[in-house]
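Narrative of activities, Objective 1.

The group set out to show that a structural description can be obtained from nothing but a protein's sequence at a throughput compatible with the screening campaign. Below is one input-output pair from the validation batch, recorded exactly as produced.
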Amino acid sequence: MLKTAVVILNWNGKKYLEQFLPVLIKHTSNPETEIIIADNASKDDSIDFLNKNYPELRQIILDNNYGYTGGYNKALDQIEAEYFVLLNSDIEVSENWLTPMVTLMDSDHTIAACQPKIKSYYNKDSFEYAGAAGGFIDKYGYPFCRGRVLDVIEEDKGQYDDACDIFWATGASLFIRAEVYKKANGLDDDFFAHMEEIDLCWRLKNMGYRIVYNPESVIYHVGGGTLPNNSPFKLYLNYRNNLFLLYKNLPKGKLFPVLFSRIILDGLSAIIFLLKFSFSSFNAVSKAHIHFYKSIRTLSKKRKKLLMNITVNNHKEIYSRSIVIDYFLKKKQSFNDLEFKN
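Output recorded for this entry:
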């Protein structure tokens, strides 16, 4: 069986394939590793480009755009390997990026998933927003990273060069044990895109597995390659999917207090958008909540099944305070300023 499958889910990303595929191939020449392109029904000439320039690469052609979640689920169903690497097309890998990650996972079978250090492609001295040096969430479900708290991105000065357990590993470069991915039923198709990796990692943590950050591997991420950061659709997905993952994964005693708090906080966000005359953002938040309420029956069925598999429901990687309050009121704007309980 193949040791490692590096799988790029492509959607209209020919420009990134042209730019980053040569570097990936150069730094991933390993007989135990295969690079596979899964295409989400691209409308550009990505496939023609691959056929002409990289006919040796395996392609999985999907008949529709199933989003990040559905695309990867359908592609990975067709791949046999010990480890899957879900790699964004807009990433530049560095030399020896793969071996430290595989070595880490080989060393401890309780590690279900891990991520490398992720830095900005455009500012290589800084961390990158979507992953940085490993992901965490606060008590209300707001995600942040070592190296990135809300919108403040830190310069990499070696302050996060220690491997450690994290709460979630970024979907931009997610190394995951294939048998565990399948055991957890993969990514949740209802998420489509955004925060799906947090949901998956939370489920894995609840099953007793570890998620780890490994700084020995470094990659550079463009970011916003599929949906720009100011996209109302992206905002909608982030608000809706955050509610989805909270409803599915919170322990019994915390579900309703946290959800009630989030509804209030999201309402305040919507009001701020309205006061700023950002009507598209206001509509995105409103639409996200409407969709969430309509989905509660489906989410309840999922939650009931997941509760049966929980072996651990208290995680030290969940920040016990509000990251929003600490950021705005206490001016704690770097990860090392935060007060995590041991």
